[in-house]
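Table 4 source record.
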Amino acid sequence: MTKLLAKTTAVERVQTAQRAEEGFTLIELLIVMSIMLILMTLAVPQLLKLKKTGNQTSAINSVRTIGQAELQYNSAYPANGFSCSLTALGGDPKSGAPTAQAAQLLTPDLAEGHKAGYTFAITNCQKVTINNQDMVTSFEITAVPDAVGKTGDLGFCSDENNAIRQDPTGGTNCTQPIQ
């Protein structure tokens, strides 16, 4: 009886080992791959949409930040008025005290004019000359997506009044208020 029990146990061990070596069949692997493919086709567009929305939110906040930096610049350098350059609003704090050419009001990436899939610029500067010095009295901040439809859908603009507007085509013809 013990010999029969030992033979049965040995046979069961061999069968278990054979089943473990079999692995998945080709059909099982194809089914798993198709399910993964279906899930990816549903998830990837949503991820891209979330990334665009995040970039657009970042662009709005960056336009606000540049507008606030312009107001601080105007307060710190009243003879110059506003700045007509992002680099003048930037600057490295390690280089010394802030100046009109490097006011140290923006982070380096924003002062370079590029952040989160958007390109930023200060345009349409209006100047007046007072006591032989140019004073910038108005400006427009623009933010356009690097690739319309991929990094963002909307363009954003603001001016010295800090009212942010949007361009639904992704350009700088901002006529609609942001929502």
